[in-house]
């Protein structure tokens, strides 16, 4: 489950946004990865490591939908 420091920082930023009230999917797709290839690479890495759930939009683009239990444990989030 080892990920790059960049991917871990992205995961932590998403968690902070969600704790602050942001919707995971809206934050990831609307603010984080839109037009940012590095953030998209981080999300792919996090999905491959089993830290975020993923799927595909109808056009085949990746869709990231939430944290996995492994991510919640890694981040030390108790009531997420």
Describe this entry's structure for a reader:
A hairpin with a 5-residue loop joins strand 1 and strand 2 (62-67). With 80 residues, the protein is α+β, with helices and mostly antiparallel strands. Helix content is 54%, strand content 14%. A two-stranded antiparallel sheet has the order 1-2.
- Percentage of β-strand residues: 5-15%
| pLDDT < 50 runs, ≥5 residues | none
Quick one: overall form? globular
Task: State Rg.
Answer: 12 Å
Oligomeric assembly: single chain
What level of helicity do the residues show?
40-55%
| Mean residue pLDDT | 89
CATH topology, which one? Arc Repressor Mutant, subunit A
**What count of domains describes the coordinates?**
1
Order of helix and strand elements from N to C terminus: HHHEEH
Structural class: alpha+beta
Task: Set out the fold topology.
Blueprint: H1 5-19, H2 24-32, H3 37-48, E1 52-56, E2 62-67, H4 69-75
Antiparallel strand pairs: 1-2
Helix pairs in contact: 1-3
């Amino acid at each position: 489950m080892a990920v790059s420091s960049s991917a871990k920082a992205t995961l932590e930023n998403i968690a902070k946004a969600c704790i602050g009230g942001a919707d995971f999917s809206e934050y990831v797709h609307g603010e984080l990865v839109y037009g940012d290839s590095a953030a998209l690479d981080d999300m792919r890495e996090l999905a491959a490591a089993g830290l975020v759930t993923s799927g595909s939009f109808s056009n085949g683009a990746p869709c990231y939908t939430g944290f996995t239990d492994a991510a919640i444990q890694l981040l030390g989030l108790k009531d997420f």
